[in-house]
Amino acid sequence: MGHLNLPSSKRNARQWRLLDLVSAAFFGGVLLFFVLVFTPLGDSLAASGRHALLRSSASDPRQRHRLVELVESGRHPAIERCPADAVDHMPCEDPRRNSQLSREMNFYRERHCPLPDQTPLCLIPAPEGYRVPVQWPESLHKIWHDNMPYNKIADRKGHQGWMKKEGPYFIFPGGGTMFPDGAVQYIEKLKQYIPIAGGNLRTALDMGCGVASFGGYLLAEDIITLSFAPRDSHKSQIQFALERGVPAFVAMLGTRRLAFPAFSFDLVHCSRCLIPFTAYNATYFIEVDRLLRPGGYLVISGPPVQWPKQDREWADLQAVARALCYELIVVDGNTVIWKKPNGDSCLPNQNEFGIDLCEESDDSNSAWYFKLKKCVSRTSSIKGDYAVGTIPKWPQRLTTAPSRATLMKNGVDVFDADIRRWARRVAYYKKSLNLKLGTPAVRNVMDMNAFFGGFAAALLSDPAWVMNVVPVRKPSTLGVIYDRGLIGVYHDWCEPFSTYPRTYDFVHVAAIESLIKDPGSGKSRCNLVDLMVEIDRMLRPDGTVVIRDSPEVIEKVDRITRAVRWTATIHEKEPESNAREKILVATKIFWKLPSASH
């Protein structure tokens, strides 16, 4: 009752149709599995899915956080490659975004970083045709054209000896706008008035440096010059400088102090840098004064020095120098040289610019996103001897504990122990870990957590220079680094660094996790994934990364290395060390974007 009885033939037909559908679905699933796993179509579909996640990561913070979590856990096989038009991407100096900002005091040319949630998580590719850079010292004179195929400077400045294209190379004759006959002859001219030889001068700042030939040729005099220029219409002048193996980074003297401590440089140089030193009540001259060591030299070549139709500007420049009691050494053609007084400034005095001394409470070392001041930093604001002529000559100053080290508790003992520790570590790196330090393969080096600059000091005999970075939330030791005759900058590693991609051969970082944590609360302010993607951006293909930290942190880092396409090995610390740490050594794989024809 209640059941419908169908003929057996019809019942079997329905059962067979159902069986056919099940079988078809099963074999279809198998076929789809093979397509997805073993064919290019599967790779393409998977890649498009990851690309969708990547694209959404730039617009949807939740998706980005999910991607970071996957990478941190080791469950995301590889971070995607950025598109080809990102080969020279600098997140904090992005012309497309910054061009919308105020032009006042060149604010739009300064650092303006996007929030991490607003940036796609991807790896910057090298340009097509990129090859391992020419090694130092040959690189001072020529680099591969295809590594940065931008002809604008060569076309516009070739007649001034900046650079020219020759076959597969860019050639650098060593000239500049104010020294078309070459930096060597220009330096010889300066030697008539400045004690360039003999070790009295060691650290120099070159403002608006072009392709940094001045700094490159001063190296022969044992003077290390940190050159800077903004990212501007000349495209990649700082990128050219770093490709040549000359210390440089991207910066703009605009509305903020430059990221250096007070009284760092023995020599400040401007060759047609076009900085309006006397504008805004001489604010820019005052910033140069903050950076220049007492007894140091200021050299300005080009406008407005005895320049046609700039009589007023030239008169104002001389008036500012007089107001600060700078000694006029010489006016030679379009070049002027002043010497900064050794002691306290002669301010207060009557001057037309309203310049006066800063308050006693002013911290002249504060320079991270710190607005320019219209007052002169007191030399008495920093205790001890740091004037040119009162500190030891180079190279003795490298190993002599400077006055600024004594501001730290047991500073001299800590300084001496730091020298010994890094001598042991670097010897271990070279002999036991077989790192390329000391070979021509390593020229541009960065220490991301430099403290007193001990790592850089231990590399003195190597054909390398070191950018010593002192994190802004760590003890302010960058002044000690400059007193030793080394160079560096302040930086916050929760933001990208002001350099082009592929500019460092070797990156060293001790205590990497401390760079992303708040020293007070111990909470993370950013994440290791973004930091390691930034290291990858700065590092050249085939470049080396060395990371020291606790075994737990090194384990985390090791998981991320796979996602950023590095090959990594983990090593025990040097035998003499009592620290609980391991050492990760990684190499950046030289990968290329797929050809557009594929």
TrEMBL record:
Membrane topology, record value: Single-pass membrane protein; Single-pass type II membrane protein
TM regions (residue ranges): 21-41
Broadest EC class assigned to this enzyme: transferase
Gene Ontology CC annotations of this record: endosome; membrane; trans-Golgi network
GO MF term set: S-adenosylmethionine-dependent methyltransferase activity
Record localization: Endomembrane system; Membrane
Family statement drawn from the similarity comment of this UniProt entry: Belongs to the methyltransferase superfamily.
Keywords of the record: Glycoprotein, Membrane, Methyltransferase, Signal-anchor, Transferase, Transmembrane, Transmembrane helix
InterPro entries linked to this entry: Put_SAM_MeTrfase, SAM-dependent_MTases_sf
Protein name: Methyltransferase
UniProt-listed Pfam families: Methyltransf_29
Source species: Escallonia herrerae
EC number: 2.1.1.-
Xref: PANTHER family: PECTIN METHYLTRANSFERASE QUA3-RELATED (PTHR10108:SF763), SAM-DEPENDENT METHYLTRANSFERASE (PTHR10108)
Gene Ontology biological-process annotations: methylation
